[in-house]
């Protein structure tokens, strides 16, 4: 546990002494809940259409595959015309592209960033490293199956996939969202215990709240 | 190269000079004299740049080899200093006073090989591995494959081919 | 002056028209910017989808009361700016709630949203938001300076604080526009315009390419939708201020659309041509290049 997350007593500027428990005071303890869609199916369909056509990607490259995301912004591929944008903050993003190998240290940050995204949110695993370990299958420090730790909507295979493959992956994800199958956030909420157990098994110094709002 | 070696020999008890290329040579230095040799090389011989500091695990000889690679930019020559330290008690003096960048290398070596550098700043902080509890992963008695299989779940239908056999089959399918 | 209730639906109608026009125009200008970079660019209806998607997000969380009020302040800044300004000259329907001293109120409203935003973003507790707010406020403050000078120059020139009167004075052909009668004030104001439109070279505050995305770091779902809506309204409303003060106003919707588009395109044009300033560079730029024409304009009037 990090030092700044431990319980401590603090003296305020006016001399008042009070106890601070950062995990309780600064973070919400509530676990995620299953969010149902709209009551009317036609409204939900409209929303799904809007979600599929306005995919905001979190600009977080976890591994070597991040280099394949950059060309998508350039004139050659121009993902913006498909409604894809990159956002700098997880609060505004909908799609998390886990690009390439994922070391345990990065996994910790990925989990935090993923949990801060707003539902409905999607995860795309890019490259064979996220699928079965890829060329890092016997590494001591990279995970082998991404879907043990996060609910993955879609995998794009390759080592590395070309930007075209990533674009076609996004098109496939759009279909998934339009069909109403992009419910990764709800799966995460339903199987929260299982995901947390898996995450804690590999992240050995767990120094953050269980759920990062 | 040879003349630098001759000059150093007057003060220090060094091992053989191994000249790999005209601009690259290695000298083995006793553990206790390393700091003095480094300061001498930096101040008198113009080796102002620490290129890297790395280690080799000679598990058969029960030794770690530390390599300090220095560069003389004006003369465009590199000189590597090798220090052998016992594997059972891997403790070394820190050189962060001579080159502050060495502190980062030393943190890495502490984490990956378990070599302790006395008084190096931040030596005990986690560098890449956070909360590692096994033996340091770059030591040769650490079985990476076994560790990976035990810690991370395998996808069941993955098959791993031996590259040599696989390429043989691909290139010469009739078995010649 | 007695209040006419019929003005309220008229004002709402103009708000609706301006919102839709703003959504389409900003998308079109983004597309033009993309074409300048040899990209295809976003679809023209992308802004609608983005706002709909942000409203459709299922979860949202708050950091306190001010966090709610930030986007509300911002939106009311944009809407207020629009409501207290005559849109179409000579039209009873679309002169909204303009009154004798509305020029002062308009100046206030331009700054109002930014202040509300600063309070809301400060409440979110994200260090990136705090950095963004301090950057944004320092930049907007300096870019307001030439605008204020230019507005004072114009007010002195026409001896009135009513936008309607200023527009009326410019109705004798295009040579009577402030652009030609008081060019220095217009230069100062157009420099300031570049600074407030959040386009390069002055968009470091909000640029998504920067690591801290600025004040809206923590804003999401419907908060963000409200802010996007405001951005569309505010962009058009602000351009309408400029059009009224310096470019002779508009006597019908078509003229307004064309003029607003051209003035807006000016900032986009500068934006695709120049790289981004850092904050201290842009502050210096405003003080060195934009303030002196403003002062000169006042002196010469």
From TrEMBL, chain A:
An annotated Gene Ontology molecular function: 4 iron, 4 sulfur cluster binding
Ranges where the NADH:ubiquinone oxidoreductase-like 20kDa subunit domain occurs: 63-172
Signal peptide: none
GO CC entries: respiratory chain complex I
Keywords for the protein's UniProt record, in alphabetical order: 4Fe-4S, Iron, Iron-sulfur, Metal-binding, NAD, Quinone, Ubiquinone
Superkingdom as given in the UniProt entry: Bacteria
Swiss-Prot/TrEMBL GO biological process terms: aerobic respiration; electron transport coupled proton transport
Any coiled-coil regions, as ranges: none
InterPro entries with a match to the protein in the record: NADH_UbQ_OxRdtase-like_20kDa (IPR006137), NADH_UQ_OxRdtase_20Kd_su (IPR006138)
Pfam family, one: Oxidored_q6
Family: Belongs to the complex I 20 kDa subunit family.
Name of the protein this chain belongs to: Membrane bound protein complex subunit mbxJ
Organism whose genome encodes this protein: Magnetococcus marinus (strain ATCC BAA-1437 / JCM 17883 / MC-1)
From TrEMBL, chain C:
Keywords, ordered alphabetically: Membrane, Transmembrane, Transmembrane helix
Regions crossing the membrane: 6-29, 65-85, 105-124, 145-168, 174-194, 232-250, 256-275, 282-300
Cell compartment(s), UniProt: Membrane
A Pfam short name: NADHdh
Location (main, coarse): membrane
Topological category with respect to the lipid bilayer: Multi-pass membrane protein
Domain of life: Bacteria
Cellular-component GO terms for this entry: plasma membrane
Protein name: Membrane bound protein complex subunit mbxM
